[in-house]
Automatic annotation (TrEMBL):
Record InterPro entries: HisE (IPR008179), PRib-ATP_PPHydrolase-like (IPR021130)
Organism the protein comes from: Halorubrum ejinorense
Main location: cytoplasm
EC number(s) given by UniProt: 3.6.1.31
Record's keyword annotation contains Cytoplasm: yes
Name assigned to this protein: Phosphoribosyl-ATP pyrophosphatase
Source superkingdom: Archaea
Catalytic activity: 1-(5-phospho-beta-D-ribosyl)-ATP + H2O = 1-(5-phospho-beta-D-ribosyl)-5'-AMP + diphosphate + H(+)
Gene, per the UniProt record: hisE
Similarity-based family: Belongs to the PRA-PH family.
Keyword check for Acetylation: no
One of the record's GO cellular component terms: cytoplasm
Length: 107
């Protein structure tokens, strides 16, 4: 497994990719641009169930990829899972800082 700090240096701050992604999700939630997949999740006729179904689907796909020892597929499905989880957090008026705080409190 590669060391994520090897290219940046051990003292470099982590990339804000989750924060950037969440900011985009929040923007899509507020602006609801036509043709945006993210916006469509906020306006879906099934409501929040559409996102809940995607979280379940992506979880299952990540589990199956792990079972099959398919690292590339596990990485891709995990990214899909995290994305849909962030959409769900936005729907519930939570954010990455709430998640970060909960994780921090656990250790």
């Amino acid at each position: 497994m590669s060391d994520p700090d090897a290219d940046r240096g051990a003292d470099a701050p982590p990339e804000p990719v989750l924060d950037d992604l969440f900011a985009t999700i929040e923007s899509r939630k507020a602006e609801l641009p036509e043709g945006s997949y993210t916006a469509s999740l906020f306006t879906h006729e099934k409501g929040e169930n559409a996102v809940l179904e995607k979280v379940g689907e992506e979880s299952t796909e990540a589990i199956l990829a792990a079972k099959d020892d398919d690292r590339e597929e596990l990485t891709a499905e995990s990214a899909d899972l995290v994305y849909h989880l962030l959409v769900l957090l936005a729907m519930k008026d939570l954010d990455v800082d709430d998640l970060r705080g909960e994780l921090r409190d656990r250790f």
